[in-house]
Amino acid sequence: MKIAVIIPNSTMPAEAVEQRRHYLQAGAASDTEVVVWRNDAGPASIESEAERDEAGVEIFRHAMRRDLSGIDALIPWCAADPGMDALRQALPIPVVGPLIAACHAASMTGYRFSLVMPAGSPGMMRHRVASYGFGQKLVSVRQVDRPVLELRADIESTKRLFAEQIDAAADDGADAVVLGCMALFGLAQQIDARVPVIDPALSALTTAEAMVRLGLGRRAA
After folding, report:
1. Given a cut of 80, is residue 5 above it in pLDDT?
2. Measured between alpha carbons, how far is 174 from 165 in angstroms, rounded to an integer?
3. CA distances (Å), 21 to each of 35, 91, 95, 104, 216, in order?
4. What are phi and psi of 4, to 5 degrees?
5. If 0-12 CB within 10 Å is exposed, 13-18 middle and 19+ buried, where does residue 141 land?
6. For residue range 164-182, what is the model confidence (pLDDT) as tens digits?
7. pLDDT given at position 119
8. Three-class SS of residue 13?
């Protein structure tokens, strides 16, 4: 099985791209190969709906330029799921958005869940989760006042800030918490929290693997 990931962050250094590929490959099944491609156009990060839309267009264009004949599934690397719907209409293979995959995982972990995100638009993330059919299960959307591009500059500080909001989400009544940014990959396993913390990167990967094994492909337009 071969799963492709398209990173929309056009300025991400090659070593950071490889770090993400290595993380996903380590979490993949033994017969899964992960390949990661980066957009050369589009925003440096996604913190607004305008940047999400721009990234979605560039992810779609990138996928259409690629030879996908050996690719079994595709993942857009962003917890706002940019380009997902367009890619699902255009491609015969599973296209898995990290946010929707994480919401499914969270909904199976407990009765209700919260989302904790960095700087961005909590209202639009709430709207997006509701559009996926999880509106009644979403307890709260909490935010850490730190831009996406600064999240990994001080990992220990980032973990502390997110742990505080995850505990607050548990007080809100959440049975699980979804991390609302792909720059947080790997942190879900490192945060000591009172409730399960869902990593959208691994959620997308394992969901894509499951869909390929189930023989699922194109969604209805």
Report:
1. yes
2. 11
3. 7, 22, 17, 23, 24
4. -100, 140
5. buried
6. 999 999 999 999 999 999 9
7. 86
8. coil
